Amino acid sequence: MKKVSNLIYHKGNGVTIIDASKTVYDALEIMVQKNIGALVVYDAEKFVGVVTERDYAQKVIVKGKHSHNTLVSEIMQVAPATVKFEDTIEKCMELMSDKHIRYLPVIAESHVVGLVSMGDVVRYIIEDQKDTINYLQNFISGGV
């Protein structure tokens, strides 16, 4: 079984963070600049949650709030589901499906060391299946 560590090795472990006391507008600016859909939220150097585009849509826009005066701490997902390097890709898929989430922070020693998206998981599985198919085709044709 493939592990989260394999995915992070291929994807990279870049994590973009924001302080819980920043405004939602600040979070949106960062997401737009980096073309990403989620930020890891810290408060006083402690991991406290995740904020996503979906949180913005559901908890700001639809509720008639304003991004300039709403804090990240007001809309973030507190204590979100997380995974570790040694967890399987299948566990990621199960958590994302069961909890209807698109992002999983990767935790090591109480710090976020990566962020796995649903897209990352799908791309990784597709690439892994392509590698397996190529290996089997080579094996069958005597190329291995």
What's the helix and strand layout?
Elements: H1 4-11, E1 17-19, H2 24-34, E2 38-43, E3 46-52, H3 53-61, H4 72-75, E4 77-78, H5 89-99, E5 103-108, E6 111-117, H6 118-140
Parallel strand pairs: 1-2
Antiparallel strand pairs: 2-3, 3-4, 5-6
Explain what the structure shows.
The structure is a single chain. This protein has one domain (4-140): CBS-domain. The chain is elongated, with a radius of gyration of 18 Å. It is 46% helix and 22% strand. It has a 4-stranded mixed beta sheet with strand order 1-2-3-4. With 144 residues, the chain is an alpha+beta fold. The mean pLDDT is 90. The longest helix has 23 residues, at 118-140. The two termini are 22 Å apart.
Alpha-beta content class: alpha+beta
| Major sheet size, sense and barrel closure | 4 strands, mixed
Q: What is the strand content?
A: 15-25%
- The CATH class is Alpha Beta
Task: Briefly say what this structure is.
Helix content is 46%, strand content 22%. The protein has 144 residues and is of the alpha+beta class.
List key phrases describing it.
144 residues, alpha+beta, CBS-domain, 4-stranded mixed β-sheet, two-stranded antiparallel sheet, 6 helices, 46% helix, 22% strand, elongated
